[in-house]
# Entry
Amino acid sequence: MASLGLFFALLGAAAAVFLAGAGSAIGVAIAGQAAAGVVTEDPGKFAKVLIMQLLPGTQGIYGLLVGFITLSKIGLLGGSPANLDLATGLMVLAACLPIGIVGLISGKTQGETAAAGIGIVAKKPDQFGKAMLFPAMVETYAILSLLISILSVNAIKI
# Structure
């Protein structure tokens, strides 16, 4: 029978993937709507606005990475799941939450910022580099949360 600790550790991995992935999906959709409007008016801007649309997708990748690291750490990828006590399982859950929560929020807000950048590209395509900087600033916080989640999961003794 699987332990309650293992359940919470698995819940942490799922939360990292689900929340960060949802943030990316929302953000990519927001930016995609703006990009579609620009391409309707000027198909030649497709490549630039596509790059801008893809930016919020990184949070989902970060959540997936933490999910894989967690599954490996608790033995589910290796075939022999660890028998974790409740406290350890809750620590793993807590370690996965930074990328999950920040990924959800930053994915959405990065999509909104990318949509604004797409507006810049629509009017002044030569300002593409500057337009990329605004959503990149939001990315900083996703990277910081990724780092703390990876360090935290790896620091837990299992």
In short: The two ends are 18 Å apart (CA to CA).
